[in-house]
Amino acid sequence: MIKVVVCGASGRMGQTIGRMVSDSSDLQLVGGVDVRPSTFFGQPIVASSEIEAFLAEKKPDILIDFTVANAAVENVKSAARHNIACVVGTTGFTPEQRKVLAEAVTGHCPMVISSNFSIGVNIFWEILRSAARMLKEYDIEVIEGHHRNKKDAPSGTAKTILQILDEEAGTRHKIYGREGVTERKNEIGVHVIRGGDIVGDHAVMFSKNFETITLSHRAYDRAVFASGVLIATKWIIGKKPGIYGMGDVLNLAMK
Ligand SMILES: NC(=O)c1ccc[n+]([C@@H]2O[C@H](COP(=O)([O-])OP(=O)(O)OC[C@H]3O[C@@H](n4cnc5c(N)ncnc54)[C@H](O)[C@@H]3O)[C@@H](O)[C@H]2O)c1
Question: CA–CA separation, 187 vs 174, rounded Å?
Answer without folding.
Answer: 5
